[in-house]
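PROTEIN DESIGN WORKSHEET
SECTION A - STRUCTURE
LENGTH: 161
TOKENS:
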């Protein structure tokens, strides 16, 4: 069963975040709390959304996403931040069902893109995505600012004012 996440799903979702981070060899980077997830997903102005898949009444996987925008297409799209299905539940169609739900939302709302990132060593995921018809954007490189570099850049903006 695929459904929109509820605030009651937050503890299970945070556990899945930890499992995903461990799988991606980045467990030390997780700082999210239940309070933070509750606020961004269900606060006064949610800008992040989530769907979960249930198996026997338990959350077995999730998709966390937000709206993106394409100036070239002139429409919103969906950026899939995380897609995770517990290892014991993989191969049951849950990942595909979560992606299909996001594709349905795109089609229903007139969005032209569903995008995400995948680690280049994650061959099982890459193969799964390719089977769905997704194509890698080999000419694009994602950049990220966090922690001290982000703080320094923000301070340079304040100094320029």
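SECTION B - SEQUENCE
RESIDUE ASSIGNMENT:
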């Amino acid at each position: 069963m695929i459904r929109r996440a509820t605030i009651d799903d937050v503890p299970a979702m945070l556990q899945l975040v930890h499992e995903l981070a461990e799988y991606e060899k980045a467990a030390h980077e997780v700082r999210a709390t239940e309070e933070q997830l509750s606020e961004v997903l269900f606060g006064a102005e949610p800008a992040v959304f989530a769907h979960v898949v249930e198996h026997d009444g338990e959350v077995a996987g999730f998709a966390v996403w937000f709206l993106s925008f394409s100036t070239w297409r002139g429409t919103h799209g969906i950026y899939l931040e995380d897609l995770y299905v517990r290892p014991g539940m993989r191969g049951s169609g849950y990942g595909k069902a979560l992606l299909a739900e996001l594709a349905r939302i795109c089609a229903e709302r007139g969005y032209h893109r569903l995008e995400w990132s995948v680690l280049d060593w994650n061959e099982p995921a890459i193969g799964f995505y390719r089977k769905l018809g997704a194509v890698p954007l080999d000419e694009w490189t994602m950049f990220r600012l966090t922690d001290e570099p982000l703080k320094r850049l923000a301070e340079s903006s304040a100094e320029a004012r």
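SECTION C - NOTES
The first strand starts at residue 2 and ends at 4.
Strands lie at 2-4, 48-55, 58-70, 75-85, 114-116.
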